[in-house]
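Dear colleagues,

As part of the handover before I leave the project, I'm documenting each prediction I ran so the next person doesn't have to rerun anything. This entry is a single chain, and its sequence is reproduced below.
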Amino acid sequence: MSELKLEFMGKQVKDMYGTFMGKVVGMITDSDGSIESVCVDCGSGGLKQLTFEQLLVQRDYVIYIPKWRLDTQKLLRQKNLVLKRIKALQDIVTENDLMKDDAELVYTKYEKRLSVLEEEEKSLNEKLQVRLNELDAESKSIKAVLFDAKLQYKSNEVTEEIYQQIGIYTNELLEHINLEKAEINNVKTKLSNQTLENIGSLTQNIQVGNPIIATTTETIPKSHESPKEEIVATKASSTNHLSTDDKSVPTTDNGSETDSNWLNQVIPSE
């Protein structure tokens, strides 16, 4: 078995917000031996196949990156480049009217490309809203569990220790949900602000996420990609529920909603 496959086997899988998903028990490979998907035992949730491109091995864990995040990262980069080129064409014509005819031919090309990207953006925004609705439903279910635990505690059905433990678990789950919701809303804002009028004020390096917590960063190459494709792993300065060897997953401070950018460079620049 190759070293790459050994990196995955037996490892625990969690999403990039810290929620555990299961354990790697196998892989599906293509005819050339390359990995297509990773099989994860999710307990009562059954065996799930996670796309290889959405996975990242980081120390003792396999990190699952949601598809919407990869799609938005790619769209933001592509749209930013198209808008910058359209703006550059407009500047060229303004500076030299003799190049107007040549510029118009190229402008039409990028105008059509922008139209396609805007349709993709519309479809992606709909998917993001669906995901937000799912997270809201999950949040309500978790809060119901916490409320029922408090009711049992007040009626002396469970001890204070058990009630406190339930509170810790449910708060962790709510924290993960809030992290993802914050990042989705951040992405939606970036998409809506990415217009030709705003292109001058947009940063050249479009990133998803803008962390509030104090972090330090280190560059870690993705093991199954080429050397030039790297990610920036954000290590939280302190964590409440993760081990000392596992500080790359984002956390919130005092329950505040924030978002993570430790995988902002999963997709290389176009």
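The beta strands are 12-15, 20-29, 35-41, 47-51, 55-58, 61-64, 215-221, 230-236. Confidence is low (pLDDT under 50) at residues 202-270.

All the best with the project,
I.
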